[in-house]
Amino acid sequence: MSTELAISTRGLRKTYRNRRGQRAVAVGGLDLDVPVGGVHGFLGPNGAGKTTTIRMLLGLIRADSGTMSLFGQTVPERLPDVIGRVGAIVEQPKFFPSFSGRKNLTMLARAIDAPTTLVDVVLSDVGLLDRAGDRYKGYSLGMKQRLAIAATLLKDPDLLIFDEPTNGLDPAGIREIRGTMRGLADRGKTVLVSSHILAEVEQVADTVSIIARGELIASGRVADLIGAGAAGTVRVGIADVPRAQQVLGAQGWTVRSEGRYLLVDGGVAPATITEALAAQRLFVDELVPVRVDLESVFLDLTAGRGPGTHAPPPAGQSRPARHAEEAS
Amino acid sequence: MSRLLRVELDRFASRTLIRLGVVAVLVICCLGLVNAWQSASPPSQAELAQAQAYYEQALADWEVNGEQWVADCEAGEAAEKEASDTPDAVDYGCDSMEPRLENWTGSEPSFERDTAGLLTSLAVLFVMAPLLLAGSFVSAEFSTGAIGNWLTFAPQRVRVYLSKVLAAGIAIVPVAVVGVGVVLGGSWAAYRYFDVVDSGAVAGVSPPVDVAVRLVALAPVVAMVGAAVGFLVRHTAAVLGVVLGWLILVEVMLTNRIQGLQPWTMLLNITAWVEGGTSYSSQTCTTTASGQSCEVVTHVVSQTQGAIYLGVVTVIVAGVALLVFRRRDVA
To answer: What confidence tens digit (pLDDT) does each residue in B49-71 have?
Structure first.
């Protein structure tokens, strides 16, 4: 993976004034690094600050403080210099509803001085050429999403930013978008995909950053994060759970019961567990190393971080960002 | 910049709402020609006969009561002169009370006077249409969210702003030229058709070509104001609301309460520009020993004042809109 950064933010902060005049923090000092190349998942629950961060990077909203750069160019100051290398879809695709897909793209192409002949090429790339003359407002959500991707391709960008790209899509559409993102990354592009659907990102992302309440809480390679989260838990299915727990606990291992199962934490080898139980004439029905997915890691990391996470925070609780390299 | 301007001009011309609006403007202009046709056409035999009958009836009444009516009129005029500080200005028109046939046949048609009047009456169309069309042109981008997408392609907000405002101003010019041309040309054709011989310039009335040129010049200025308002309120309905709210609250209600605001109303200054100058009246009342005496004073508003006023308003609205657009977050 390249050490060059496509996106970098330091101390990025954005607050909004709510209806009662109080300041609500949308992004609270975010440090984010997205390396050049590959698919980078930008994860966080709804309200975590993903879209706000993307909007700030694209110059659509102003940051209260902090710095941002795209390919080393400070934004928003140098955004005009670098915007040609960046294609973005922020939330839902938004085009002129009464214009056709082709007309919408033609206007965008002319705005960036791209040849208008490119319009049909990108429409063909996303499979919309036969519906290019139809009005945008008549498109299905999937078609709108594909048109938005076609729009980003007009620039032949080095960095593509997809904000919740599969919202509202059917399974076929989701798979299609996933394939498109992977294909772009395989062609050497950098793809930043923000999502709260972790299983979807896990299948396509090379690296991820997880944020909650506008702060980075973990980042790194997906495999490393999952490996760090797994920490070698083994699930043991056995008939006499209390006695087995006693036996395994006596070995000094951390053992938890979960219904008719025991969970042995701490990276104990399954063979050692079998040996310890068999020595006491206890025989396992089932012995499974627990596979931790990104969702489990995410829920573990974001638990107790309040709004923009999945549980309210205990008073004063705060955890530093975890980097896969450190944790694993 | 010119690239963005060309794209915006294309978008302006392609919008369905704007196309419908342009058609509506042209239809209204054509309806105005019906009025020109009626003004130019000579009265029919039946109308002449009826006018003659009314005239003879009035003349008969005049022969019986005329002397008394004149005496009453002169008495009233004399009383008013005595009470007034400016007796020379009091004129009840007692010398011209005798009925004349033209009171019923109407005045002789005049291309110059009638067409200038027709164009002036259509001024509201050439103000409201550019304002609303340009307002919707910009605000639709905000209400659909397309502006956010647009800014990811063209992030320089000043250029984006200028391209949209200038496009609105430029694109409305051909619409105004065609609309005004239809009225002017159609009216001329109607008066030629009925062989109305024109007496040339009419005192106190701008030549219709001058009015037409001023209307064409006004349309792009108003369109740019409309586009700027679109940037500020970001919704077509809100643009309409702002325009109607201003008319009702400021131009009518507030001005009625505070007479000093009259020379600074938008409508008066637009009228001054279009008609080559206009006037308004204010009433000054004083309490004397014999009671309250009120005097109506007429004030002149020059075309120059109208032009300066409109220029200043345009610069202020456009400047504020630019500042707001540069700083405001785009959803």
So the answer is: 888 899 999 999 999 998 899 99
